[in-house]
Amino acid sequence: MTIRCMSRSLLTVAAAAGLLFFAMAARAANTGPVVLAASMATQSLRLAQDDGISLDQAVNKVRQRYGDVTILKAESRGSNGQRVYRIKFLTDGGRVRTVKVDARTGEIR
What is the pLDDT of residue 12? Predict the structure, then answer.
């Protein structure tokens, strides 16, 4: 599940980069809808940013709040159309804790 979420972000960035390359190539050749391609690339990047936070960003938020903890497991879960990250970690005191991070807002629960 984690790989699929990260792959979607990478694919979005790759698609945006491809559109930018197309726009630059069309401009160099003095042909093609350069403005449209640039607009589509900008829109793809904006969609990637509006998609929420990545699993790596969620792990970083947990580390910011709880210190330099050891991450035991981090996974993406969806329920009722809402995506959450479930992060299990080992505290400095040796306790195992699990928190949920809202994938859209980054809020730790």
Answer: 57
Within 29-88, residue ranges assigned H as helices are 34-50, 55-66
Q: Is the pLDDT of residue 8 over 80?
A: no
How many other CB atoms are there within 10 angstroms of residue 16's CB atom?
19
Tokens representing 8 are: 């979607």
**Model confidence, pTM:** 0.54
Quick count: other Cβ atoms within 10 Å of Cβ 85? 27
Take residue 99 and report the two structure tokens written for it. Answer: 């928190």
Gap between the Cα atoms of 49 and 24, Å rounded? 23
Domain boundaries of the chain, sorted by first residue: 2-50, 55-102
Q: Is 98 left (phi over 0), alpha (psi -120 to 50) or beta?
A: beta
Query: Which H or E run contains 23?
Result: helix 2-28
pLDDT for 86 equals: 97
Per the structure block, which two tokens stand in for 76? Answer: 């993406």
Count Cβ atoms below 10 Å from residue 23 Cβ, excluding itself.
Answer: 20
